[in-house]
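== Sequence, structure tokens ==
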Amino acid sequence: MEEVIKNLVALQAVDLEIRKIDEELATASDDLDSMRARVIGHKEAIAEATARIEEGEARRKELEVAVEESQGMVKDRQNKLMSVQTNREYQSLLKEIDDAKAANKERDDEVVRILEEAEYIQAKLDERKEVCAREEEELAAAEKEAATREKKLNTARRKIVKERTVAAGKLDDGRLRRYERIREKREGVAVVGVRDGVCFGCYMNVPPQMYNNLLKSEALLSCPTCNRMIYHLPEPETVEG
């Protein structure tokens, strides 16, 4: 039974190494995804700000054309004032002129607001472009580094997977299936040590009689709390000073 436990512990160690590599690969991928998302966010914000500036510019040109046309109308009405025949017609022309001037005043005010907003947006846009350019450079460097790291990790993983095949081959089908079933349910850890009666998987005490049987290494036992396969874990050796 000691040999079985030894093989299970060895297989567990290999699986933990594989899991560690997989987690590193996943973390690197997540980090790159976050960086890409930030760059995409910057570009979307840049596109939105650019569109707002363009829309404002189009509106400003539209207003300037309207002002120019209105000013032409005012001049026309002012010229007609010299030849009106009745006071009613005179007052009507004056009202048209006043209305046109008031409308132009509103247009001029809107043009000023558009220009001020465009200046503010442009300043923020320039800042955003600088940040985006910097983070794109950082992303390119991170992708290059990640590609190199991923290649090394995958090479190491392939080597360890071969070791796992050898380690798994030392167990009979029944124990291997049991190991895999527990490992799947217990976050990748199916075999744990027990020291001083405490399971190192769930950190709960095992019954005293079970612990005594565990010391004998005569059977493959399971923790009654977490159901992981357990073995006796000796006290660490102390170095005498």
User: Anything to note?
Assistant: The chain is about 75% helix and 5% strand. The first strand starts at residue 191 and ends at 195. The two ends are 36 Å apart (CA to CA).
